Amino acid sequence: xKRLLVLVTAAFLLLSVxxxxxxxxxxxxxIMDFDYATVHSAxxxxxxxxxxIGKGVADLLVNYLVKDGSxxxxxxxxxxxxxxxxxxxxxxxxxxxxxxxxxxMLGVDAIVVGSITEFGNETKNTxxxxxxxxxxxxxxxxxxxxxxxxxxxxxxxxxxxxxxxxLGVAEGKGESSRDSTSLLGGxxxxxxxxxxxxDFGSSDFQNTIIGEATKTAxxxxxxxxxxxxxxxxxxxxxVAGLVAAVDAGQIILNVGGKAGLKVGDQLNVERVTKxxxxxxxxxxxxxxxxxxxxxxxxxxxxxxxxxxxxxxxGFKVGDAVKTLTQ
Length: 326
Description:
The chain is an alpha+beta fold. Helices cover 28% and strands 36% of the residues. The strands form 2 sheets. The chain has a 6-stranded antiparallel barrel. A 5-stranded mixed β-sheet has the order 2-1-3-4-5, with helices on both faces. Strand 8 and strand 9 (284-300) form a beta hairpin. The longest helix has 23 residues, at 2-24.
């Protein structure tokens, strides 16, 4: 009875520690560049060149989420490295199955993919005198009244990296409009001015009407992404492997990203000192081991990783490693 009580108490303590570890870290997500194929032509016409507005929206969303603090966000360079190594196309990155695969390599709890469904502005001109007119500017001469309106619409999905299931959706829409009266010259438009023309926008994107609309849309969407956090569970991944080599302070392990390992993970290192075998079958029943130390992962590829010692010395090839933190 006493032994049973000890076992129950030990199990309870183990569960408590596991729960504490799960609560100790924030839920970890990665933000993919938004797909903007639907608005590509409108965007190129607006800027006069092909601008990666999908990356711009993703970076802005990351900024808002970092400031909010509800999630731990994977660094941009880590995401770019995986995308470059795996050579995913833009369409594949927006696919839930592909996104889930990328998420596993990054060691996140979920990955966010999204699309830009509206991105543009319209300008209406009312003029006295002069000639011409059109989208974003005026023709020759005259005194006129200009009203411009920008609309940006976004949607995002939070993907479970184990199942590819959509855990939650988020949407954001922003509009901005301005009225102005101008003494017009030739060649003016929304992002600058020609001879004698006046632009009420700014060289800073955030101060243009399309910039204001984008900011509003991302702000609204970030609020919905944060509200989805309760639908996301922290993944508990146990990674076990062996020390494959020790070289100049670097400890090379035979497990990597495919096993769920990521940069920053810490692993216990133990050395098997004795194997207990079944005398009848020769099967190994139990391995007795002693702790060697703790290592921290500094670099990961698909099938291996490099770690440095946090504590302990004398690491050897064949030492067993097991995840300490996730």
